[in-house]
Design brief:
single chain; alpha/beta; DNA polymerase, domain 1; 3 domains; five-stranded mixed beta sheet
């Protein structure tokens, strides 16, 4: 008999075990670990169970054995920690685009034909350029809707042919809307019609935000289990957004007044997370 689960936005859907298996595999769990976790999850399943409860149980099981894998599994929720302003999420996106070979600018003001616009991220290289609007949400269940797409398309029209750098390739012809949650179906339909680029945790099916994070190896510090929430926020306030930021400048941890042993634990966790491979499919 099918079991229905309640999603973060309050809607229900049938539980599909392959989705759980896929998320565990993408986090880096091996076949035996996946089978064991799925078995324990199925033992607690009941009609009307919340997806958050399934996540918490799976995370608990992963955390007891493999820190880097559990960190990757928790990454979607870790992105909610890049708030409350949303600026850290913009900086995080810039880090990903830089890892993909782009030069970036954040919070850039450009004068369009009819109005001035502040762009969250501008990215360019010798072959391609685009601007991105970051739509950060502090909790799951919130979606970026048609109104967001309509507004962004109007901005693209007003900014058409404006340059974000001095090279010919830098004229704005692509606007990407990036959210840490999801888009409504109407927003996706409108974007497909107008040529807007949408990027969310699981959209498009391939090369979505999750895939790009994994491929770039750029993880937010909010996934680290060796730091408290207060410590993570203290680092974010001084511009330490990713685990690689810590690895580039480990002495920054002195700002937290950590013991040498604790600081070593943080660096070790960040190193393991950034060096161990995970799955993108």
């Amino acid at each position: 008999m099918p079991i229905n689960v309640i999603k973060a936005d309050g809607s229900t859907e049938e539980f599909v075990v392959s989705k759980l298996q896929k998320s565990l595999r993408r986090a880096g769990a091996n076949r035996d670990e996946i089978a064991s976790i799925v078995s324990e999850i199925e033992a607690i399943m009941h009609d009307g169970i919340r997806t958050q409860e399934i996540y918490r149980k799976a995370f608990e099981l992963l955390r007891s054995s493999k820190a880097p894998v559990s960190a990757r599994y928790s990454m979607r929720r870790a992105l909610f920690g890049l708030g409350p302003t949303g600026f850290p999420f913009e900086d995080f996106l810039a880090r990903i685009f830089e890892a993909e070979g782009y030069k970036t600018k954040t919070r850039v003001t450009l004068k369009g034909r009819c109005a001035e616009h502040e762009l969250d991220v501008a990215a360019y290289n010798e072959k391609h350029s685009f601007v991105a609007e970051a739509k950060f949400h502090s909790r799951p269940g919130m979606k970026s809707d048609l109104q967001v797409a309509l507004y962004s398309y109007a901005r693209l029209i007003d900014l058409e042919a404006v340059s974000i750098c001095s090279d010919d390739v830098c004229k704005i012809s692509e606007l990407m809307i990036v959210t840490n949650t999801k888009f409504t179906s109407s927003a996706e339909k409108y974007a497909n019609c107008t040529g807007l680029t949408l990027l969310s945790w699981n959209y498009p099916k391939n090369n979505n935000l999750h895939d790009r994070i994994q491929r770039a190896g750029i993880y937010p510090i909010t996934v680290l289990q060796s730091l408290s929430q207060t410590q993570k926020q203290a680092l974010i306030k001084i511009g330490v957004i990713t685990c690689k930021d810590i690895l580039k400048e480990p002495q920054i941890l002195k700002r937290l007044h950590l013991s040498s042993t604790r600081a070593e634990e943080v660096v070790k966790e960040a190193t393991e997370l950034c060096t161990q491979k995970s799955k993108t499919v």
